[in-house]
Write a structure and sequence with these properties.
The structure holds two protein chains of two kinds.
Chain A (H helix, E strand, L loop, with lengths): L1 H17 L2 H31 L4 H21 L2 H9 L1 H4 L2 H14 L5 H8 L1 H26 L1
Chain B lengths: L2 H24 L4 H17 L3 H8 L1 H4 L2 H19 L3 H27 L7
Helix pairs in contact in B: 2-5, 5-6
The chains are: A mainly alpha, B mainly alpha.
């Protein structure tokens, strides 16, 4: 076991040394254009809803609704993971990636039951995001209270 | 209609995603950790009043990436603390994020009911 671990490490080291930096640059270019495109779509949607005289909060919610619904559809059709292979972080970091991280395990684990399969696995990634996001917001709120209050 | 405004959204969103890509390639952070890191960073930058400038510059380029979700949490909690005082710290964040989270949950459930798991070939 130990030798295989060692070999694995050596292999990873070798790969790290041999992988050209151009690989990372290529990934970054894909991430930039795919992520940028998703945000551009978001911005176009925002401008459309604003021109229809929706308030700022409602506009933000409607944009999220469309992006999340699209992501759920693309994930269900198996297209989002195909995009993800090329685009990398460009499809992970936007809200569509967050939706994908919830939809994908929901579909995959529903065969294990609706409660501990679908219901629990939905939050494999979203759970930690909410735990640390909410906790940070509470800390921000408390600090704001004592500084500004 | 200002074309530069759309370009700014594109560049801002693209840049935030590139930061994520560098973290994936250079460190061994999984995408789950990246998402947590981005939400927490967005929330801290929002609390410090820095993210507002990114938002003013990039529009949806700043709100669509998950750092924008963190910014929303910080914005909500600060507004709520200003409105109701100390207890607002416990309600403001999730209140502002309620819509997004609920939408994601409902659509995940819907998708799981409609689609069948795919074979991973």
């Amino acid at each position: 076991m130990e030798t295989t671990e060692k070999k694995k490490k050596e292999y990873q080291q070798a790969v790290k040394v041999l992988s050209p930096n151009s690989h990372i640059i290529k990934n970054c270019i894909w991430a930039f254009f795919s992520g940028g495109t998703i945000c551009l779509i978001g911005h176009i949607l925002r401008r459309i809803f604003e021109s229809l005289n929706y308030s700022e909060d409602k506009t933000a919610l409607l944009v999220n609704l469309i992006l999340i619904a699209s992501s759920a559809l693309l994930t269900g059709l198996g297209l989002y993971s195909k995009m993800g292979k090329k685009c990398g972080a460009g499809t992970v970091v936007p809200i569509t990636g967050f939706a994908n991280s919830m939809v994908s395990p929901s579909i995959e684990y529903k065969t294990q039951g609706f409660i501990l399969g679908l219901g629990a696995k939905m939050f494999t990634v979203a759970g930690p995001v909410l735990v640390y996001g909410i906790t940070t917001s509470v800390i921000v709120g408390i600090i704001h209270y004592f500084i500004m209050g | 209609m200002d074309i530069l405004e759309y370009l700014r959204a594109f560049i801002t969103g693209g840049t935030i995603c590139v930061i994520g890509q560098i973290l994936i390639d250079k460190t061994k952070l999984t995408s789950a950790r990246i998402l947590v890191l981005f939400v927490v960073s967005g929330c801290i930058l929002g609390g410090l009043g820095i993210y507002k400038y990114i938002y003013d510059f990039g529009g949806a380029g700043a709100t669509v990436p998950l750092t924008g979700f963190g910014y929303l949490l910080s914005k909500g909690v600060i507004e709520e603390v200003d409105k109701v005082g100390f207890l607002g710290a416990f309600t403001g964040g999730l209140k502002s994020a309620a819509g997004g989270v609920t939408i994601a949950v409902v659509f995940s459930l819907l998708a799981a009911l409609i689609f069948k798991p795919k074979d991973k070939n």
